[in-house]
Task: inverse folding
């Protein structure tokens, strides 16, 4: 095809359960931070202030029990949430995703086995930001929607230059 000559980067990968959970955790991490760290700290401070006022050891014991209970609930919620996410999104797990990054736009093609192929085109001005961790790139369309791309799935272009290319495109859009 003639247009392939202008593709700067191309990624081709299967959207599996692990990628699904990484994507969910990436998008929710700032909200989870509030529940995992800030809420228990606020509650602990209230128990500590109560202990300072009364000097009763039962306030400290209640604090420890309550914090352990909070973390247990958060742990169980995250396990339930992961199972729920996998069950509710089983139609996207196993989908083949091909992302093409060009000078003018991003083309995302998705195909599920025994189904038809869909295609979506995004202009650079539609991209909110790009982020990465050790194993994935996150091309964010908004604060709550992103594409998760496994590192090492680049089939066209020098993957080492990918993030700087996208950052420049976002900045100049």
Result:
């Amino acid at each position: 095809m003639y247009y392939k000559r202008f593709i700067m980067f191309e990624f081709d990968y299967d959207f599996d359960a692990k990628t699904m959970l990484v994507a969910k955790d990436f998008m929710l991490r700032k909200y989870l931070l509030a529940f995992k760290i800030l809420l228990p700290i606020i509650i602990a401070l209230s128990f500590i202030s109560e202990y300072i006022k009364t000097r009763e050891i039962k306030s400290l014991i209640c604090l420890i029990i309550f914090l352990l209970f909070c973390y247990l609930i958060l742990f169980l919620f995250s396990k339930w949430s992961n199972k729920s996410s996998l069950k509710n999104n089983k139609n996207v797990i196993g989908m083949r995703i091909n992302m093409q990054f060009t000078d003018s736009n991003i083309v995302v093609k998705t195909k599920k086995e025994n189904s038809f192929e869909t295609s979506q085109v995004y202009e650079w001005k539609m991209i909110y930001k790009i982020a990465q961790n050790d194993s994935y790139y996150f091309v964010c369309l908004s604060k709550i929607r992103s594409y998760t791309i496994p590192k090492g799935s680049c089939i066209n272009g020098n993957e080492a230059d990918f993030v700087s290319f996208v950052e420049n495109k976002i900045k100049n859009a």
Notes: The first strand starts at residue 7 and ends at 15. The CA atoms of residues 95 and 113 lie 7 Å apart. The radius of gyration is 22 Å.
